[in-house]
Every structure is written in structure tokens, then in C-alpha cells.
Amino acid sequence: MTEQLRFDGRVAIITGGGGGLGRAYSSLLASRGAKVVVNDIDVKIDLDDGQSTTPAARTVADIVAAGGDAVAHNASIADPGAGAALVQTALDAYGRVDIVINNAGILRDRSFGKMSDEEINDVFAVHLHGALQLTRAAWGHLREQQYGRVLVTTSVAGLFGNPGQANYASAKAAMVGLGRTLAIEGAKYGIGVNILSPGAATAMTAAMLPDNLHAAMSPDKVAPAVAYLVHESCSLSGEIIFATAGRFARDFIGETAGYTNPDATPEDIAAHIGEVLDTSNWTIPNDAVALPNS
Fold first, then answer.
1. Do 178 and 136 touch, CB atoms closer than 8 A?
2. Structure confidence by residue, pLDDT tens digits, 238-271
3. What is the set of active-site residues?
4. What is the DSSP string of 194-213?
5. Do 165 and 157 contact (CB within 8 A), yes or no?
6. CA quadruple 156, 77, 123, 150: dihedral sign
7. Which of helix, strand or coil describes residue 214?
8. CB atoms within 10 A of CB 16
9. How many beta carbons lie within 10 A of that of residue 270, not counting itself?
10. Counting beta carbons within 10 angstroms of the beta carbon of residue 112, is it exposed (0 to 12), middle (13 to 18) or buried (19 or more)?
11. Taking the model in full, what pTM does it have?
12. Where are the domains of the chain?
């Protein structure tokens, strides 16, 4: 039998952990010994007993009831100073941070021509700036201890495009650049950084998915990939892993062999565009330095 991947002694920060994917990640890691700092927005939700709580506190209560260890941080990761405050919450509660999972997200879908500045800025504030600020706040601690695992979240929209989601797709594409760059920078410090492209029926996405797919696309079906990617035994870094409905795959950015002509004219490009696009021979560059003309 394969030995269970455990997180005893590890401290994980998970944004958007009050529901959906983040709740599934928080619960799984806690069930395997991690101490979890659950972040989510500071809003009140009503419980069946007439009491109220916050999304993060509800997840924490369920973890503790199951015998786990967790604390809540109630704030939008987009709020000024939220990233630093979240890291400080982990340090105050547990004295360290080992794992950062940037999961929090929102949608503000609209066709590009009608999209407002607010709809663009709100999405970037959560997905891009929130992930940047939190990861930067944790980075020094991870470097100092010469160990860490960071996960950022992209999507099929960010990788392949999706109508009505120019703001969301742009922010999610930025996660690929962020994750791959941090993977390079973190390598000498024992910090592994990967990029997750999840698909699940959550409060954010359920309305876009047929009812018959909701059970098959449960967030619980994605969580195992997350647990592996942030485990100390995972040697991957800079990878994009797709996970949905129990299917796991590698997404990647490749480059064709192309057409070479230092004296090329626009007409030469037109004549050889088939060679430029030919995918029969391609490579995966390790970083920007590996690109001939980056």
C-alpha cells in the first residue's frame, strides 16, 4: 500500500477557503495533519441554529469538529494589507508558514466592449494583486527556512480564452507568468511553485454548468491534485496541472521549430507561415532565457 501523503507539522494558508474549492482543499489538508489558516471575505452567513458566522469560520469549525487544527482570517485578499495580515495570522497562531494556496476568485463577466473599469479592476484585485501580495508577504519566510510550496490558480479561460471573460482570462493568464517566474526564483531556496487549472461546480461557476455535471465536478475531485502539488515529496515546479471531475492532465506552453531567416521580409513570413505553425516538432522552453529572441 502506498504511504499516505501527510502534512504533520506543516502550516498552510488557503485563500477563498470558506466554500467551494478552497473549502475542499482546507478540509483535505487538515485531515492529513496540516494546520490551516482559512481566509475568506468578512461577510455574515446564517446557520441552521439561527446563529451567524463567516465563511472562513464555518470551514474552521468543521475542521475542528473533525479533529483538525485551523484558524480563520476574515478579509478579502484584495483588501490593502490583507496578504501581510494573513501571513501574520499564520505566524501568530502557528509560528511558521509552509504552504500558500492562492485560490480566492470572483467573476464579473461581460462582453469586452461593455466591460466597465470597475469590473476589470475588481477581478484583477482578487486574482492577480491578491495572489501577488500574499505570496510576496510569505516569500521571505519561505526563503529563510529554505522550504515552501506555493500554488497559484489559472483556468481554461486564461489558457485558451473564453467569451465574456476578458478580465478574468487576463488575470488568470497572469498567474501562469507569475507561477513560472516564482518557480525559477524559488528553486535555490527549496520553494516549489506550481499552477493549477481547476474545473469544479462551485458557487462561482455552478450556474454555467449543467445540473447533471455538478456531482461529477465536485471540488472534492480537484483537491487530491492540490494536496500532491503542495506536499514536500512533490518535486515538480513551474508546471500547469489541469484537474476536473477526477481527470488530471498537464497543460504546457510549447514552441514549434519554426522558420529561420535572419533577412526575412513580410512576404517570406507569409510564404512560410505553415512552417511557423507546424506542431510536428516542438519544445517546451524552461524559461525566458531559453527563448531565442525573448
1. no
2. 999 999 989 999 999 999 999 999 999 999 999 9
3. 168
4. EEEEEE---TTTGGGS-GGG
5. yes
6. negative
7. coil
8. 30
9. 8
10. exposed
11. 0.93
12. 11-253, 256-290
